[in-house]
Amino acid sequence: MDAIEIKQWTSDSVAADLERAIHEHRLPPATKLGEDELGDAYGISRTTVRAALHALSHRRLVELKRNRGAFVAQPSVREAREVFEARSLLEPRTARSAAERMTDIELARLRENIEDEHAALDASEDGRALFLSGQFHLEIARIADQSTIEAFISELISRSSLIIALYWRRRAALCETQAHHALLDAFERRDGDAAEQLMKSHLLDLVASLDLRNVAQPATSLREALQR
Amino acid sequence: MDAIEIKQWTSDSVAADLERAIHEHRLPPATKLGEDELGDAYGISRTTVRAALHALSHRRLVELKRNRGAFVAQPSVREAREVFEARSLLEPRTARSAAERMTDIELARLRENIEDEHAALDASEDGRALFLSGQFHLEIARIADQSTIEAFISELISRSSLIIALYWRRRAALCETQAHHALLDAFERRDGDAAEQLMKSHLLDLVASLDLRNVAQPATSLREALQR
DNA sequence: GTCGCCAGTTTTGTGTACAATCTTGCGCAC
DNA sequence: GTGCGCAAGATTGTACACAAAACTGGCGAC
């Protein structure tokens, strides 16, 4: 079947694999992540799975319930607002720094990223497109050369993916890549002011495209909905 | 001796205990944290110790070296700059929010915090004073009611403590509480603009009071210094 | 008929044992 | 005398086994 048996999984690589699966919406919010189940799937012991699950819980991608198990997180409306509030504090300034110190090679990588995203969208690979969209933002933080801020943004992007899974209202599928194109233009001009401003409004647009009225609760799995 | 035997330590509480010890400089940078050693100290197995150590490594307070062990982290000069860069992006705006929504009760708690810090300084309990100083910043984030940003700031504050341990140059011992007093005044007036501005310059002052010339490397333990 | 209690089953939490890896010290060759 | 290599010791990484807790189902009493 798969080449799973070939690779030697470590707790880190398992965590990365799960994070990507969550990011691509292959593991939707509230999915139960049983330790035995995962151990069998990856061919590793529960000990290693536990380490990976704990790592993801520190990034708020997985919720650990004592004696209940691990579940893909379901960010609340409040948490959703907070995540984008944090992003709006970090990313615009980071985009400015990136614009001011970007090399042609880095610019080319960003351009490539956008093209891949387009290709994924054309192939209706929504999950992959969403992941690449996140990679675009992450790449900008990487170019800004601030690894600490980059780590925060990385976490926020992954969490944003969960938020999108829960609260996205189909509307603007294109505006996403549109905004990224605009940012790329600013980067090409090494225009820090424009990049900061564009990132700011891009994030605002993202929040606007979500349905964050507390009326519609996460619509989670059965009992979870009633425990609230 | 101690009441350690009474308490039932969990991985979380052990992590919190270690974090506080690090924050108060009872565990200086580069201290080796052996698993057996810690297990004996807390009366728990290595399994639980490992979970705590991993948690702290996610917050960049301890560095895990494969097959080598866990050590209290030694932030590089570069990392030090990054941490304060991140703080300067997050904390000023957070202070503004806090100022605008602060209640009298919260104000009183902050005042109390400053008094405790004064008392600790008078008693020459430097570690405790440093911890309380961090708590002041953390309390502000809590008042701003943004738990996501609060979590980031909490991590940055703890890491700042390590940075101070490594790079502090004795100079302004008082300016710290001075700045906190000024912030408190702004909070009393619910003056968001002033709070944001004061926090911004407070953080700049902090960086200025560090010796971040790359000349003087961490001055770590023997071999560590040479591996760089 | 409904509510409450109790036991069975499943899943996580913790402790222990073994394997892999790295460090350290000695010995041998050049 | 110096440098390399190998073996012994120590420490972490992983797997396994047991204990604790929570959910599920059924039985019995009111």
Would you give an account of this structure?
The structure is a homodimer of 228-residue chains. Chain A has helices at 11-23, 35-42, 46-58, 77-101, 104-122, 126-143, 147-167, 175-188, 192-208, 223-226; strands at residues 32-33, 62-65, 69-72. By secondary structure, chain A is mostly helical. Chain A has two domains: 11-72, Orthogonal Bundle (Arc Repressor Mutant, subunit A); 77-208, GntR ligand-binding domain-like (Four Helix Bundle (Hemerythrin (Met), subunit A)). In chain A, strands 1-3-2 form a three-stranded antiparallel β-sheet. In chain A, a hairpin with a 3-residue loop joins β2 and β3 (69-72). In chain A, α5 (104-122) packs antiparallel against α8. The first copy, chain A, is globular, with a radius of gyration of 18 Å. Chain A binds chain B through residues 51, 54-55, 58-59, 79, 82-83, 85-86, 89-90, 93, 146-149, 152, 156, and chain B through 51, 54-55, 58-59, 79, 82-83, 85-86, 89-90, 93, 146-149, 152, 156. Chain B binds a DNA duplex (30 and 30 nucleotides) through α3.
